Amino acid sequence: MMTINVNWDLESIFAGGSDSVELTDFLEQLSADFKAAEQAPLPPTLTNDTTAAWVDAIQTVYDLGERLQHAHSFIGCLSSQNVKDEKARQLEGRTGALSAQLGMLWTHLSANMAAQDDAAWEKLLTEPELAPVEFHLHEQRAQSREQMAAEKEALVTELATDGYHGWSRLYNFMAGDKQVEFDGKQMSLGQLQGQFMDSPNRTVRQQAFDLFEQAWGELAQTSAMALNHMAGFRLTWYKHRNWESFLKEPLEANRLTADTLFTMWDVIDRKSDKLLDYFAAKAKLFEIDELAWFDTWAPVGAVTREFTYDQAADFVVDNIGSINPSIAEFCRYAVDNRWVEAEDRPGKRAGAYCTRLPLKKEPRIFMTYNGSFNGMLTLAHELGHGYHGWVMRDLPIGAQRYTMSVAETASTLNELAVKDAALKVAADDQEKLSILGTSLNDATSFLMNIRARFEFEKSFYEKRREGQLSVQELSELMVSAQKLAYKDGLAQYHPLFWAS
């Protein structure tokens, strides 16, 4: 049997990695086309005679965005697989600058769209080239009417490259570059995190968590600077737009109302006490009085099996196929064609994600597979994200935009299918207990962990309006949010969770 390659294929996109001549040529042409688009006049007042000019202008911006996404996704893959790839970081800065230019093009074009007669606008959207992206264009036009003048918006977008996004890149590099020694091995923070999340040994979890906190404590001042400046940038921008709520932009991006969001959290607040019974049962199994933060993900039961990457991929494909053969076919194709980077090695960034390469009509999935059942679930989850992009690959780029709530559907379905199948073939009661524990851990993540993040960010942005927050203040806000979300049900919390 052929072994599945744990490394993704990037050579078929641009050969040569960050030194790719093909990539250099691609970016040179893209930069030239951006410059030409910036110098081109905006389409004139919308009439029957100017319809073609409008269609061409809109299609030009979409085309630039699609090509930029392709390059940006590829370069993101390079920096994820090797956080020490300095050339990739430089290229990220270049695509970041082009992203700012794209934002400026959309800003000016959207303001021009907003200035047109409503009837003429509606007629324009019946054009065959624009009808498939009507929804997105309506959103762009409506949002423009709630922003600053186009010139100011464009300036802020340009400044964000070295401001807002620059702080983000600094943080990502810092987090990815940090190495620690644990159990005689050099590890990234992402690998260390896996130790306190997945280890069945409480001593290992405690030691890994303490080292994780220590490592982030060494990075806390810089992390606080990055977070404070990123939030300050956004709040200043919102102030000049006359936006009162810092939730306005994320709500609109997710097509949610504040009433819907807070009703959801209210229901969760009233019902999540039920999970405290799980905490009590889990603490009893661990022979401790109360769980600590690092126990909340810990496996229960006595699962000794590890799954090779091949076994994990086969299990995911086989069991998703019983629910949706189309998703399973995609998953098989993705792993066989090396669209997944799964190797467990130092030098990779933490976490997992799926990105799209629109010109290739392919996704790429990044993760670090460690042989655990949770690792198998991560693979299933990210393949679910990939499936969303796969089924939309032939749509215009402007019709491929969907909210996070939609984006998590196939991924969550994949996880549920894998857990359900694993429960049915569990080797013994201890393995069944472990799988049930994983499901309850997921419930804890959805209903408590995510809520803690939300409550922290809400309180942080409220206080950030008054000035910058210190590391201690950020940590205090974090613990308060965790106590609220976890119903004060833990013996120890994660003060530096905001940094990690």
Give a description of the structure.
- The chain has 500 residues and is mostly helical.
- It has 3 domains: 17-169, Oligopeptidase f, N-terminal domain (Butyryl-CoA Dehydrogenase, subunit A, domain 3, Up-down Bundle), CATH 1.20.140; 187-303 and 428-498, no CATH class; 309-424, Arc Repressor Mutant, subunit A, CATH 1.10.10.
- The protein is 64% helix and 4% strand.
- The protein has helices at residues 21-39, 51-81, 86-114, 118-124, 134-144, 150-162, 164-177, 189-198, 202-240, 248-253, 258-271, 274-286, 309-320, 325-336, 373-391, 404-407, 409-424, 429-464, 471-485; strands at 179-182, 185-188, 340-341, 353-357, 362-366.
- The strands form 2 sheets. Strands 3-5-4 form a 3-stranded mixed sheet, sandwiched between helices. The protein has a two-stranded antiparallel sheet with strand order 1-2.
- Strand 4 and strand 5 (362-366) form a beta hairpin.
- Helix 3 packs antiparallel against helix 6 (150-162).
- The longest helix is centred in the middle third of the chain and has 39 residues, at 202-240.
- The chain is globular and about 75 Å long.
- The model has no long low-confidence stretch (mean pLDDT 94).
